[in-house]
Write a structure and sequence with these properties.
Two copies of one chain form a homodimer.
Chain A: H1 14-32, H2 37-53, H3 55-71, H4 76-82, H5 86-101, E1 109-114, E2 120-127, E3 130-135, H6 140-151, E4 155-159, H7 165-181, E5 189-191, H8 198-204, E6 213-217, H9 220-229, E7 242-246, H10 252-264, E8 273-279, H11 280-296, E9 300-303, H12 305-310, E10 315-316, E11 330-336, H13 338-349, E12 354-358, H14 362-371, E13 376-381, E14 399-400, E15 408-409, E16 416-427
Parallel strand pairs in A: 3-4, 3-6, 4-5, 7-8, 7-12, 8-11, 9-10, 9-11, 12-13
Antiparallel strand pairs in A: 1-2, 2-16, 14-15
Helix pairs in contact in A: 2-5, 2-7, 3-7, 5-6, 6-7, 10-11
Chain lengths: ~425, ~425
């Protein structure tokens, strides 16, 4: 990972260089704050076109990154994320066009009211300002993140994993071409011009107040470091330790299909379920078919003592299983005494990401959804719906599990702030 | 100030004590998250009643605080803020009743939509969790802050200035009585049980993740320390360096009354104007009457060179004047070349709090309100309207100048978060 490796080059004064980046971003952000929807969409369309036209260049740069990565004996999964293909490049271009098609959040009047003294007050959506995005060696994030920030009227400072430095630089050049085509400042989307990992530490300080929020995109270690060191707000989620609770009033067939989908559709996504909780009242009837369905889908099961009493032969779960994000075909199973016990378990071991209840009892579902303090709570649906696209928000930059500002899928609307606009005709305060 | 003084007592293990406070707050917050409007309002009404009944006790404790403060030779303004009277106690009780009368923000559905697959998605307002309030020796803040946090379904950890320890403790006892009367957990509003200033540092660490946001209420030094040391999000504003810009298209009479009101109605509030910017095009006609109106109202004026060329005899302004929050009957005056120059000055020296333009040109006003990146921008109205009550939001805990989560007046709605509630009938993701 970019943050763990030794820098491949050293700039004479990276601090001065990053300060320049920060100031340029701030002044670009001011221009963007009054950019029209037409201007922003023109830039996005030109970015997509430029990415398509430059496919060969991007692939050539990517080949150089890949060669270096292979030489460095990096893991296969790492190489896969780093690899670009004509299809992946087309997907990047399409992704930018989809972002262009989203409604412009900036300028939307969120609320408006009149005061007895005649003052008219409006709460208006504004850009956040300058967003620092720190990600690993996934070149496509350069395009997604840059386009999302622009759509919301924000300037972006992108710092990608240094193993994708050439690929990301080539993609960034296309974003800049798009900005130029719309006569928007090139500094609206900057790519940190060095592999020096000191740049990350500098971004986390906020660059003299010129970065308003940091968005880390990547694995646990990256997000954890960012959350620990950042001196500016962070939109991040550490992990998705998500639960599916099967209540006594659940329909068994629905429970089976939801649990298998929540765990196995894709095991590597943050919305994947990691723990299955089953109401003791139905453990005798439900546990065996649920566990068999999971096993038939290729999932390994670890059970607590009570579940192993019902389904012998299941591998014993240990304490650490309840707080592990497997991101793999493994699930921990626990028998709980009703919804209250399920909520207690989730609040103790969960990560406030996404949790689901399966039940036909509306009041039990309401209690679960009210008391489980997670960004997303679902009733009779799979946790794998935890996704900005599935929510109809369009592209997302990630899913936030904090309670501040952005929570859940972070799309263009979540990348904005607001201000109060007050119009009068000479009012003074008595 | 509480943060600057030496501790008057030392607990054996304040760390352990504060950890207990944090855990108790978190569990109280969970109970509050499902407290009904009726329960919360019952508690608030009982708090107000208890404060009225306990007026004598509160005054007696306050007298002890005052005696100690006088002995410590604390300043008169400090003593005034510390002093309680029957009127101030009645105002506290009334304030709590006004908060009870506010609409309950929790549970409000902020948005709701259906997906093609039949999923019903709701964005629902939730409490933030546990709010740490750090304030100086103003006993009334104990009542305001505790009541506001409760109305929004949050647990509160209150740490008041140690010179008001007895007064605040007595007020806090009334809040607890109110919680009991409504059968809500007493730990929902905790008052840090020690004068030891180490408690503040511990709160800024978040107490093992048991404080979700810190709200500092007090002077610059307190807010600055909190912003610098806090490891959890902070709702704060450092200062209100607010501007009034008089445009070439302004009406002179309106300009005079707005400038005098913005500066002089109350000079000690954060919404007070500190700098007057006048369009060069009208400087010859407007500057003299504007400055005379201010001087007649008892305001001292410091002018830049261009304004002193028009109105000789004005004290020269120095560079530091443009970034000084006087909170006093002093104003800095500068001649600028139109709205763009005014915006540039505000962005360079302002504090993103509250800024106003006086003009009859709608397009100039729109540009000013779009490009001035402040929490509150006004057109033809006084900056002194920067107040939650004047906005119709009811009581506020302060005015935030950051762009994250809360901006502008921080009332009950701004003390909430949200979650996504997804309801299905067995949907799984393909």
């Amino acid at each position: 990972m970019s943050l763990a490796e030794a820098p491949m080059e050293r700039r004479s004064d990276i601090g001065a260089e990053m300060r320049v980046v920060g100031r340029a971003a701030r002044s670009a952000a001011r221009r963007l704050s009054r950019a029209t929807t037409v201007e922003k969409n023109k830039a996005l369309a030109a970015m997509a076109a430029s990415i398509r036209e430059s496919a060969d260049v991007i692939l050539a740069e990517n080949a150089l990154d890949l060669a270096a990565a292979r030489e460095a004996k990096l893991a296969g999964s790492f190489l896969d994320r780093l690899t670009l293909t004509p299809e992946r490049i087309e997907a990047m271009a399409k992704g930018i066009e989809e972002i262009a098609a989203l409604q412009d959040p900036v300028g939307a009047v969120l609320a408006a009211w009149d005061r007895p003294n005649g003052l008219h007050i409006e709460r208006v959506r504004t850009p956040l300002g300058v967003i620092g995005v720190i990600y690993e060696s996934r070149p496509n994030v350069t395009a997604d993140a840059g386009a999302l920030c622009l759509k919301a009227g924000n300037a972006a400072i992108l710092r990608g994993g240094s193993d994708s430095f050439r690929s990301s630089s080539a993609i960034h050049a296309c974003l800049v071409a798009g900005l130029k085509a719309a006569a928007l400042p090139e500094e609206a989307i900057q790519f940190v011009p060095t592999r020096d990992r000191a740049a990350v530490g500098l971004m986390l300080t906020g660059l003299e107040g010129n970065i308003d929020v940091i968005v880390p995109r990547g694995g646990k270690s990256l997000v954890a470091r960012v959350q620990m060191e950042a001196r500016v707000p962070v939109f991040a989620h550490l992990e998705g330790i998500n639960h599916v609770y099967i209540d006594r009033e659940a329909d068994l067939e629905m429970a089976k299909s939801i649990v298998v989908n929540a765990k196995m559709r894709r095991t590597g996504v943050c919305g994947a379920a990691e723990t299955l909780l089953v109401d003791a009242r139905v453990a005798d009837r439900f546990l065996k078919p649920l566990i068999e369905a999971l096993q038939q889908a290729g999932c390994r099961v670890r059970g607590d003592e009570r579940s192993r009493n019902v389904v012998p032969g299941v591998t014993p779960a240990v304490e650490s299983d309840w707080s592990t994000e497997y991101l793999d075909a493994i699930i921990a199973v626990k028998v709980v005494d009703g919804v209250k016990d399920a909520i207690d378990h989730i609040e103790r071991y969960g990560s406030h990401h996404t949790d689901a209840i399966v039940t036909n009892d509306k009041r039990t579902a309401q209690r679960f959804m009210a008391e489980v303090d997670s960004a997303i709570v679902l009733h009779n649906a799979s946790t794998q719906f935890a996704d900005g696209g599935e929510f109809g928000m369009g592209a997302e930059i990630g899913i936030a599990t904090g309670r501040m500002h952005a929570r859940g899928p972070v799309g263009v609307e979540q990348l904005t702030s607001f201000k109060y606009r007050v119009t009068g005709n000479g009012q003074i305060r008595p």
